[in-house]
Amino acid sequence: CWKLRASLAPPPSMNAAQYIISRMRSCKSPPEGDVGDRSGQLENCFASVGSATHDYHGDDAVGYGPGFMVVADGVSGTMKSSGVLAKLLVAETLASLAKLKKRALDTPIKASDFSESVEQATRNARKATKRKGRLDSTLSAVYFDDASRQLFAYTIGDCKCVLVRSGKVVFESDSIIYDFNVPAVVSSNQTINYSSEVQIQTCAYEPGDVCLLFSDGVHDNLYVDQVIECVELFSDNADEIAKKTVQMAKDSFTECEDYIPFAVSAASFCREAVEELKSNSNVNEEEYKKFSAKCADIPSAEITRPIFNKEQRVRQLAFYSASNLLAFAHKKMGKKDDVSRFRQNQRRPFSKKSRNGADDGTNGKDSRDNKKDQENFSEWVYTNESFIKYYQAQGIVDPSEWETLMTYLAKPLPTTFRINNSCAFAERIRERMAQDFQFDGLVVDDEPVEPISNMAWYPNNRGYQWSVERRRIRKLPLLAEFQKWLVELSDSGNITRQEAVSMIPPLVLDVQPHHKVLDMCAAPGSKTSQLLESLHAQEHVTGKVPTGMVVANDVDLKRAYMLVHQSKRMSSPALVVTCHEAQHIPHFGNEDDQTNGFFDRILCDAPCSGDGTLRKNPIIWKQWHVRNGITLHPLQLQIAKRGAALLKVGGEMCYSTCTFNPLENEAVVAELLRWSKGALELVDVSQALPVLKRRPGMSSWKVMDLSLEEVNSYHEAVAKKDERTPKLLSTMFPPTAEEAARFNLDRCMRCVPQDANTGGFFICLFKKVAPTPVEEPVKTRAERRSERAEAKKDATPAADGAENAAEGEESTEATDAPAAEADGAAARPIEEDKSENKPQRKSRRDRFLPKGEEPYIALAESQWEELKQCYDMADDFPRHQLLTRSEESKSLTFVTQSITAELLAEMREKRVKVVYAGLKIFERNLTSDGKKVYRMCHCGVHICLPYVRTRVFQITAKDLQTLVESQGELLSFNDFEPETQKNFEAAALGSVLCTLNREPGSMVEKMLMNVAVWRGKSSVSLMAAKPDAQALLAAMKELKLWDETVSAHVAKCRAERRERAKPQHSHPVAAVEQKQETEVAATDAKPMDSAE
């Protein structure tokens, strides 16, 4: 960890070999005084340098010099020799960078110079270890160029560089993490297939920035906001930052009390390996059993954290086990390039045309240099001949509009955001947009930029669009204040940055506070947030918590946890997050009344090929194939049918996709209407959003095979079926003329980019007017495979496919193709194993269920009495809406009336994984004398305040502002006015509720101007996370309660406290963060709620 000085003075000339020897560090922290003994060279570079280490195998190495640092991480698991290449790699990199620094005195540094220096070092390291076995390393190197004030970050694999400024991450290097791609490595083994592709990025730095460089031991166990917390806590002491960060990572690794990035990714990755093999009919039973046995020691589909104990289990071991298993599965299926084909780095450019469509005649090196020189602002436009031929034949736009469509698809998406329906200060946000952020006359890259404007079709003028793309807003210094304001509003839950067409489906559903809503394919969560906002839209008017709920489901556990993270800023007790296959979500409630459904509203944003998102996902240009729509159609139809079955009679379901393909849109809608036999009808929503430019749905389209030849009928498809072609179903073909007149497919909505400068989207709304037909249970893949094997053991997959086609496709609607993840789509279908071994598999999963996965249960009588006694709660408090994970659990969760313990228990009984539910509002703690005290979370204050009769008193606006602006700090009693000071002194140890001592002028003020405070022995602290404190402060400004003089006084007191707490060092302390061992006393002075 390094805190940068105002300038980086150039070092004196030095002998490179002596320099390497003096700077080499391996698996140890530097000795006390080490940095100061190096001729003062580092003192000219950094204001503060610090390190902490935690290492099992001695496989890491670090080095640093005046203006450059490097970390290398050996990744050969438990091999004792795994650190050899890492050590040599650091030595070679230091030598190369020392030469570069010396040359920089005469010539400005370019990204290409830095890249060549480090690449030469990697080549030398490989060469030096050519005959020493399999020795792999990942690398991150950073170079600070004083002349240009540029940081050059060079990354191979999953080491990472982060630059923190004023509590925000302003730069984060690319690394292959979280998506769990196979890491790029520097390898001396010529036989492995892992990529060694390098990521190089630049970023402007400023004095006072804090730069952290760490290997995967940190980001496997910590999220970035946890690292930022360490930076803010020890802002002037890099050594303490490093120690605190590594201690938190170590604690997370050994205790496994929370879900960590590695754990969530590992479960998803290993599940893919298991399902890839299980779904393949070429693998016989003996091979599958052998494969399953190998899976016993790695995270499976239901295990959401690593199962490593405290002996010698290492996270890398599980990763490579999963990689090898997936490679084994692909090999059995005859797939090429095994793991690397599925896990390649998607940031790699692959087009030969520039955004303006001209051929790029430069060689690769010049092209890369040009891209770096433009600070990564240059873009590429891609084309796909199959895409053009297919959609021109479909007629999705008039031929005269085709060039316009392609032009828009080549442009980046504009920035769009909306003021949330539940925001209490929408008018003030609109006023500031009009006054401060119109940017009239702004010119970017020599092109004039139109001012920010309202999206005319979005209700109540709450939607905004700006032609500047999102990443330019992040990069341009001129827009820094606007970017900061948007982030603050987003973190506080007042706005949501979301693609324009993605806002439409929740709007047409018209969700009310009492509705039970299901979002079948919810991740990443922008539409889920919009549904929750509609549920809470009247809360600031009525003061009542909604009675309905939103069940947000996704099949991928990693995406489900991302969904939780995205939705937490809403602080809603109405949310339930589940992980299940959308097409197999069971019925809840009365089993005898299944035909009448359970949910009032359902959003079915189905997985699709995603070509409507080409403007933000240009990689789809390369991946697009007609096969995608053909293979996804059966899954989409299954999900839509299941949604219709779960819908109440009289309820409404929105089906949407982000693709232009009629096979995934109108074909699914037509078959759904045909299957329902009049129970479903399309709703005309033209009056719901009258200003929105849309195009009617299609009643006729073409079905094409893989060679893009038209297939005129289903019978023709059966006749030309072969093993290389995915099966064309009768449901893919257009309706007859009589059906087309009855279905009213023109009521569907198609959004094309040129109409409103958006992405492509498809939306339709169904209303259920009668019970739908009872569905036959869909057989799982394992069952179908077993039946085929028993009927004809020597049958080939091609023969099975032909037989199924001859008998009719209705019996096999599931697809074996992976679903493309696009804009909120769910992941691929994963079938439960219903074989004879199911009880054994179930017990193995249950044996490894983590502590946080206990089922939600009603609050025990004893716990309620403790809580009631602690706060003198009124008897009419809705205690039946309080849930907990177990009687020993410290957390108490509040839910709406629709979410009951019985409902959550039914979900668990029916094998639906409940990932998250409700809103945590209390946490139990023990005082020093052993007394139980329930801490109240900030998000629960407005819910509990009407029922609390003790531990509550009024404070002035000045004291409220002091508490809010001092978030995360300990305040003494005498920091407040005399009356407040007396109240704090008289209060019992624990949580105290403070309300504003004036008559509220509105329901908004009554709900928001209340805080929970932790009363310690001699100090108090606000019980609120930073985003909540920022939202409170913004609310005080809107209500004219904020005082600038109070703010200045708080800032002065904070500076004095930090100055007193600042450690005195005679010289900087040097080293680097890694996953190596040190013992650090990790005491957090803030009594913050862990979930907040």
From TrEMBL:
Keyword tRNA processing: yes
A GO term, aspect molecular function: tRNA binding
Pfam families: Methyltr_RsmB-F, PP2C_2, Pre-PUA_NSUN2, PUA_NSUN2
Cellular compartments per GO CC: nucleus
Keywords of this entry: Methyltransferase, Nucleus, RNA-binding, S-adenosyl-L-methionine, Transferase, tRNA processing, tRNA-binding
InterPro entries per the UniProt record, alphabetical: MeTrfase_RsmB-F_NOP2_cat, MeTrfase_RsmB-F_NOP2_dom, PPM-type-like_dom_sf, PPM-type_phosphatase-like_dom, Pre-PUA_NSUN2, PUA_NSUN2, RCMT, RCMT_NCL1
UniProt protein name: SAM-dependent MTase RsmB/NOP-type domain-containing protein
Species for this entry: Lagenidium giganteum
Organism lineage: Eukaryota, Sar, Stramenopiles, Oomycota, Peronosporomycetes
